[in-house]
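The freezer alarm interrupted the setup, so I double-checked each line after restarting. Inputs confirmed:
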Amino acid sequence: MLTKRQEEILKLIVEEYIKNAKPIGSKSLCDQLKCSSATIRAEMNMLEKYDLLEKTHISSGRIPSERGYRYYVDNIMQPKELSGEDVLKLQTIVQNKSLVVSDVIAQSMEIISELTNYTAIVLGKSSSDNLINKVEVVPIDSQKLVAIIVTDKGHVEHKNIFIDGLVSGAEIKKTVDLINKLIVGTPIDQVSTVLEFQVKPIISNYVEQHEILYNAFYNAFSEFTTAESVKMSGTKNILMQPEFNDADKIREIVSKFEDKDMVKRIEEDNQGINIYIGSENNFDDDVTVIKSKYVINGEEGTIALIGPKRMEYDRVITLLNYIIDNIKT
Amino acid sequence: MLTKRQEEILKLIVEEYIKNAKPIGSKSLCDQLKCSSATIRAEMNMLEKYDLLEKTHISSGRIPSERGYRYYVDNIMQPKELSGEDVLKLQTIVQNKSLVVSDVIAQSMEIISELTNYTAIVLGKSSSDNLINKVEVVPIDSQKLVAIIVTDKGHVEHKNIFIDGLVSGAEIKKTVDLINKLIVGTPIDQVSTVLEFQVKPIISNYVEQHEILYNAFYNAFSEFTTAESVKMSGTKNILMQPEFNDADKIREIVSKFEDKDMVKRIEEDNQGINIYIGSENNFDDDVTVIKSKYVINGEEGTIALIGPKRMEYDRVITLLNYIIDNIKT
DNA sequence: TTTTAGCACCTAACTATTGACAGTGCTAAA
DNA sequence: TTTAGCACTGTCAATAGTTAGGTGCTAAAA
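Predicted 3D structure, all chains:
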């Protein structure tokens, strides 16, 4: 158990380090704690024993360890009031009624990325709550079609279909009508099931070249469900942080950002704001990932901010909460 | 005018430097030129006077200057045969019939980016050759619609429409039918003209709340034409080059890549493969941009590769030419 | 028992200094 | 015209010295 004073010292060190990214020496805390540097050094020593502080070298000032940040986040940090400026910028997005939910989220995260100078990520997932509202097929030429699916939440996805053989327009239209009749109202992740168990058994009764057509549509539609969107903004921001002042480290992070599989590992399962400091996250040991799943009115996905471990935790949490709380259509 | 031997020396230096990014000393060329290092030094001295070679410091070996690369590209370089491996990888994309032209280009450039380790950019522009094939509007709720435009070339774009007022579904449908009747076959960049001069004058005859509806659709559709796509692949590749072994330079380039306005400056007006070495391009003085406009079957845009100034010019030109020549639907 | 002053000690970061190395330009001879 | 020889130059890496900002420990003070 930490004493009051130890907590106070930890708090001061974490907050100072978040501001300046420079190790904090004992002398600089004398004023605020009204005691000598020797006393503070003794306390720092204890905090280092508890693995809450670290030194960069044997005679350097202290910086928070991962556990130190964790303790700060769990026990010391106070929720922060949003500054008027921050609210103002977010409000204009959040209250813009002509945007669909997914755009509100994407644009809000862009703003937050600018406000905080961290990197924002939005992982969108077509929720199973999205029901097919309409399927439209537009012929391009004799062998190519464009299939468009619109969901009840306003999602639009399209896919090119290549018909491997000669099929008349009338046959295609019959197929589309059949699919439309059976598929409207289906959750987007069950489209291929409906195709297989409802469309397939009866398509041969109505359509001549049913095999070619069924296969073409099945291939196209089976991929709708897996479509996940990844939107990033401010990728450069985190690279500007002084802790990444190294060509190879920057390259490493840029590579990870470019690797969509790596970015998708950010995906979050738990509700609420979750914080993964350094090795706690599965993206990069030198960053903190703070993220939240959202399920808003049928939209589902993850919003995340990636910053240095010395992130402005209180501010970021408040900003993310503002979004989660205020985007409800 | 350069002598045969001077050209030979320039050629060797450029090609060697492209391979290894290390300054070339006079001694290393003795074998290939069958003369002493002193002779070569004298020639190098001439080439430096002509501003074709540079030294990194007073007693270093030589590297090509921008003019040196330019001379090499214009006068020395020989077109390169495509290696079997390169062709193989590109063929599978180029010959994939189920892809629309824009996807073939995007995917080919991805491959080229991997093959060369440079950064590939595809700037797509909805060409005025794209004609509206179909306009579809799907209602989401009482105030939101999704409008979808499909062109005859298979482009799909969608836009959310927010109706600022209470309008019945029947009125909306009347509007859409009217628009559809008048707009099909219109070049995509003239949609707003058609709306203004053909739809606006008569919409009041058919639709009750014509002002609200006209404005909503006009706002949505006027933005279709400006939609330009920017696709990049292998952004990290160029950062891996040894000449960018500096945190700040990497940050600068990443920032430029993230700035879409900056990337759009890559856009090319001229036909054919064009090469902009260092300060010749308007993106970054330390890179070479090699690019070409393409107009293929109604698709229009720019493909570009960004690499270090010591780019494998011959190989890149051949690769880009392969794409331009082989993608014709 | 807690706090403090004082001191020995530590490391990073900066500044020279040095020698080896790889290259140059110039000159005089081939 | 070419070449060998030589003086010269900048980079790089290793080494040493200095300073600044910090520490831990101890013995005395509160």
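Quick read of the result. Residues 23, 25-27, 37-38, 41-42, 44-45, 55, 57-61 of chain A lie near DNA strand D (CB under 10 Å from a C1').
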